[in-house]
């Protein structure tokens, strides 16, 4: 018998497992896949740490979270500075003075703002009601057409005018020559990969891989007093109200016998007629001298039952559905629902970790 059964060995489950184990609880982690670390999973390919489920770059403003992850593994000084390729031309991301210089030849923030303000006028006084309007209000139509529209519509499979504005809040606009994608104070990649970090979190804890909780819910539930479930919330309830929508991704990886393919970890392809959204070259995340390199093209796709869910589509329709599931979840007294899939949230890694720690400390207060 265990105190806690944790379903899913991703970041939420692994942080919970670590903290509960530290408090002396008896914990069992079960995981459907054949590996730990969820979508942050990295796999060693002759020295190169391959991000098997897409690029994962750790960043946070919260010193407590930064110290927390660094207590498991050392982080390198990786700074995400992606490029955008639009019709063969390269532009710096996020939108900053380098981007504006390349687009319009402007050299000062005042000159750049003059161009942007002129282009913003098309919206008048209107509050941006969707992603398209939000983007134009932030950077004007020129950048919207070249660097946002195609990428966004490929990634989400929906028109930018049908998407919520908040998605684009993730992308900073800077009036300096600073190509750092994130504005957070702390940033890096665990040296040796995320799997190493999660492995360290799970040290001394029993983990059983290849076990699908939902296939054997009744029996497995008997193993513990409490369950922390980190899988999709709608699947837990057998999709009784219908399916929550996700975007999924398909990855095409190649091993090339050259040292350096694109000179950068991430290059986005922002035009609509190139079917992938980006190419990542894994060795640049955690630099290593090798004669080979691994690149991955990322193709977005609509999620269907059985696919890996990646991005929740947090529009009104799905949020209403999610709230119905959340109500059911609150009635499951023995089960706690947490993490990206159970909370149906577009979480970054630092937010998942923070959410797990917050939940545990909150719960601790009641003990
Ligand atoms: N985005 C864009 N052009 C780009 C990169 C991002 O328009 O070159 C927009 C797009 O709508 C995307 C959002 O910004 O969904 C957030 O992108 P980010 O790279 O932060 O998402 P991630 O896939 O890393 O979670």
UniProtKB/TrEMBL annotation:
UniProt cross-references to PANTHER family, sorted A to Z: UDP-GALACTOPYRANOSE MUTASE (PTHR21197)
Q: Name any cofactors this protein relies on.
A: FAD
GO MF annotation list: UDP-galactopyranose mutase activity
Protein name stated in the entry: UDP-galactopyranose mutase
Flavoprotein in keyword set? yes
Supply the NCBIfam families for this chain.
UDP-GALP_mutase
Q: Which Pfam families match?
A: GLF, NAD_binding_8
Location of the UDP-galactopyranose mutase C-terminal domain: 146-346
Q: SUPFAM superfamilies attached here?
A: FAD-linked reductases, C-terminal domain (SSF54373), Nucleotide-binding domain (SSF51971)
Q: Which EC numbers does the record give?
A: 5.4.99.9
Superkingdom field: Bacteria
Keywords on record: FAD, Flavoprotein, Isomerase
Q: What class of enzyme is it?
A: isomerase
So what family is this one in? Belongs to the UDP-galactopyranose/dTDP-fucopyranose mutase family.
């Amino acid at each position: 018998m265990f105190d806690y059964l944790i379903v899913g060995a991703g970041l939420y489950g692994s942080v919970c497992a670590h903290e509960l184990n530290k408090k002396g609880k008896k914990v069992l982690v079960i995981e459907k896949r054949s590996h730990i670390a969820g979508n942050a999973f990295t796999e060693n390919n002759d020295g190169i740490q391959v991000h098997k489920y897409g690029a994962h770059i750790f960043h946070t403003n919260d010193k407590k979270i930064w110290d927390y992850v660094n207590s498991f593994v050392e982080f390198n000084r990786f700074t995400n500075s992606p490029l955008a390729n639009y019709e063969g031309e390269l532009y710096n991301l996020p939108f900053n003075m380098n981007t504006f210089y390349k687009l319009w030849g402007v050299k000062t923030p005042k000159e750049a703002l003059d161009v942007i303000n002129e282009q913003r006028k098309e919206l008048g006084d209107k509050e941006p009601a969707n992603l398209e309007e939000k983007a134009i209000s932030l950077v004007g139509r020129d950048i919207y057409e070249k660097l946002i529209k195609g990428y966004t519509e490929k990634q989400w499979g929906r028109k930018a005018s049908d998407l919520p504005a908040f998605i684009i809040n993730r992308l900073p606009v800077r009036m300096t020559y600073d190509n750092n994608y994130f504005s957070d104070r702390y940033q890096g990649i665990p040296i040796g990969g995320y799997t190493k970090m999660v492995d360290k979190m799970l040290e001394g804890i029993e983990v059983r891989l290849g076990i699908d909780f939902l296939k054997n819910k009744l029996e497995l539930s008997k193993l513990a007093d409490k369950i922390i479930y980190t899988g999709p919330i709608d699947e837990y309830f057998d999709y009784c109200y219908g399916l929550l929508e996700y975007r999924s991704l398909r990855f095409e990886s190649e091993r090339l016998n050259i040292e350096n393919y694109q000179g950068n970890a991430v290059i986005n392809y922002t035009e609509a007629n190139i079917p992938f959204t980006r190419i990542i070259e894994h060795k640049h995340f955690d630099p290593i001298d090798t004669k080979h390199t691994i690149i991955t093209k990322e193709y977005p796709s609509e999620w269907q039952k059985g696919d890996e869910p990646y991005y929740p589509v947090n529009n009104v329709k799905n949020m209403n559905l999610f709230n119905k599931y959340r109500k059911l979840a609150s009635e499951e007294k023995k089960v706690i629902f947490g993490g990206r899939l159970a909370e149906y949230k577009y979480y970054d890694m630092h937010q998942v970790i923070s959410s797990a720690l917050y939940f545990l400390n909150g719960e601790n207060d009641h003990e």
